[in-house]
Amino acid sequence: MTGNYFFWNAGTEMQKSHQCPSLIENVIPSRWHSTSSLANNVLHTPEPWTRTELFECFDILMQQKALSAKFCFFIDGLDEYDGDHTEIIKTLNKFTASSNVKICLSSRPWNVFEDTYGHIRQKMRLQDLTRNDIKLYVQDELEKDARFITLKSRDSRFQDLVEEIVNKADGVFLWVYLVIRSLKEGITNADTIPTLQKRLRKLPSDLEAYFRHILGQIEDIYWEGTTQAFQMALAALGPLPLWAFSVLDEDSDFAVRCKGQVLTTDTIDGISSHLEKRLNARCRGLLEVKISDREDSIWGCFSNRSVGFLHRTVRDFLRWKQLPEPHQQRYSTSSPALQATCTGLNG
């Protein structure tokens, strides 16, 4: 019998805790209902389970001498458990004391987990599995740019740069994507290989630190619009149309001041390009404009351009992590234009 569960630090309290009553009926056979007097009482109770109740259920199961079933639990994101990591390790070790239970865990290599599980031979590192794929991706992305091809032909250290990116990536593709984007900015400035290497070494290797680094590059004059854009994206139920971001930096009576005009396709294209530039200046790529193949009549680029987060980890970061000063106070603000737009878009 196999059960799976993942901790998620952006999820509900239940998803960050050790409580998962729904797993009981999945991993315990039908005979559980006939052997446990607790089944009818605890499986359908609306109240959260206590640790005592959880352990009592599991102990009863393990004490069934005639039970021939074997249990394997796959637990993902152990580092995202919202509690004492030492305690959850003790709990898991107690489970695996039974010869009928095996557990497969995944986690970031934090010290508390390395101290307990680091010596185990049956382990895999994500960066070892993805290293070749990341290397191919880095080479492919850089060599798509003719400027990098020219630089590669003049300087043999190009491959050293690739290797350094792969080594620092630690298996995280999103980090590699962000680094490639930064290096392309460097090559636009005619950076040499040594300068690109310096650029790379100054970039944070941790994603959250990298997000803070990106936010730190936003000009102060844009931060009101930055706040509005992120709040809109967080409040939305999905990707927003690009035109929704036309309210950025506008005051509460901007609609009254707007002059009515007939919008041609060329006008809409121009407005779309203008809005995209404004969004990029305020969000530095953490919000991305995505273009679909669908276009609806006169709306042209307005109908096929939507805005969403670069990655779900950006949404999680902005929702759960405190921004550094002086941006925290700004981030908590809102505007009438923003509130009206979010209300209208979410129905």
Automatic annotation (TrEMBL):
The keyword Repeat applies. It comes from Glonium stellatum. SUPFAM superfamilies: P-loop containing nucleoside triphosphate hydrolases. Coiled coil: none annotated. Keywords: Repeat. Residues 5-108 form the Nephrocystin 3-like N-terminal domain. The keyword Repeat applies. InterPro entries: DUF7791, NPHP3-like_N, P-loop_NTPase. It holds the Pfam family DUF7791. This is NACHT domain-containing protein. Residues 218-321 form the DUF7791 domain.
